[in-house]
Amino acid sequence: MQTKISEEFSHSAEGQEAEQILRQCVHCGMCNATCPTYQLLGDELDGPRGRIYLIKQVLEGQQPTQKTQTHLDRCLTCRSCETTCPSGVQYARLLEIGRDIVEKKVGRSITQKMLRGVLKNGLSNPRLFQHALTWGRKIKPVLPRQLQEKIPAATSPGVMPQAEHARKVIMLEGCVQPGLAPNINAATSRVLDRLQIQTVRPQQAGCCGAVRLHLSDTDGAIVAAKNNIDAWWPLVNEALDTRVEHIVMTAAGCGVTVKDYGHLLAHDSAYAEKAKKISALTCDLSELLTDSVPELIALVGGEITEKLVWHAPCSLQHGQQVRGKVESILQSLGVAVQTCADSHLCCGSAGTYSILQSDLARQLRDNKIRALEASGADVIVSANMACQQHLQTGTKMPVLHWIEVLDQALANRSALIGPVDAVSDGTDIATVAEPVVTSPVLMPSESEIAAMLQANGETTVAKKKSGKATGRKKAAGPTKTGKSKKQ
Ligand code: SF4
Ligand code: SF4
């Protein structure tokens, strides 16, 4: 696509970067086919190609209007278009630049400014958010229905492991996740603990910056990124014993943002190198656990008997281009996991989108739920708390983070044989915590484990736990989802 960037932007780093991106677009329109807002609204300007044109016009000197802003606002930043684009157009980065310019030139009404200010400051501050949530729960009955459904009941995270291990990873706890779904981080710590991996959680770390980026506050996102880099940097120093292996993300929305710190701070001489390293160390939980499949099979292989349907967050499948890993891990554990029709489409959560574009978000949610429910599964699993909360407002099916399912399976297995570490007094493990056995389901034998590994393309058989567990029967107690296990 030919461009003639105006004098106003042609000398800035952002203007030049935008020009490079625009030149890659060949205007083919293939991206429109997989754009959720184009599918819903059928308007060229509510698809990626149209939005690219709008941004091009602004960069070439045309004054943006409120209409321009509306079309850019309606974008979910789901990045499905990037996955589809044959020319590798970095649409999300172009949108970020375009939105920033339009924000400054068009502005917002007082009401809009106030709402966006509350979201920016309230959602990105874990303490403030926790206070607001506590109050919200108290006055929930008198709140409008739309707000009520966004306030889930309080849940307990359970016990956080305290053991130290030689292998360590930093875990970003996030800003709203500890308040809305505290079990996710705790479940992650428990599963990693059983794999002899310690989760380190520096208190100074906070919001990843995604909320501010969604609200066109790039400067605020940069402050958040620098704060996290400062919090993590002492732990990634290779000269220290405390060095961590990875920075693990339990929310795909945070993961895509932290993986982009290197790019966000590329022009900051004090932080550019550090940011690059932090991004390189960052991984999604599924990327980390892919290497631990043999141990996981030994720990919980055959334990999960519910049928699961996988909802792939856009921030994972399109933003991070991580696809198939969660499904592969679950399948290796013998879990029946399905995907739904149109799994590439966004559920409508998209950061603050479900609040600021609630009508479109509800339509996308309902379409997604119809597809997920049609799978006939018992439980929806995902890898992004925001998607989970959004989907849960529209279905009675339980919506969990996939690590919570693994954690529950570990708890079920421990209830059967007792925590292995607790058997330190010479007591025969067979006499510990004998449960009421109501199910004939056997834990997997070594040959079954070998078969599961083979199905996953692995050759190593983990014997550590399976030796003790082989032949034991398990109780059919209630699961986290409130269902009894299927026999
Ligand atoms: S698919 Fe890529 S090249 Fe084609 S119009 Fe969309 S962004 Fe441009
Ligand atoms: S990011 Fe998503 S909503 Fe936005 S243009 Fe691309 S496909 Fe459409």
TrEMBL record:
E.C. number, please?
A: 1.1.99.14
Sorted keywords for this record are:
4Fe-4S, Iron, Iron-sulfur, Metal-binding, Oxidoreductase, Repeat
Biased composition, class Basic residues, residue ranges: 462-475
Q: Which Pfam families match?
A: CCG, Fer4_8
Region: Disordered, residue numbers? 455-487
Q: InterPro entries attached here?
A: 4Fe4S_Fe-S-bd, 4Fe4S_Fe_S_CS, Cys_rich_dom, Glc_ox_4Fe-4S, Helical_ferredxn
Q: What class of enzyme is it?
A: oxidoreductase
* Domain named 4Fe-4S ferredoxin-type: residues: 16-47, 66-95
Instruction: Name the PANTHER family on file.
Output: GLYCOLATE OXIDASE IRON-SULFUR SUBUNIT
Name assigned to this protein:
Glycolate oxidase subunit GlcF
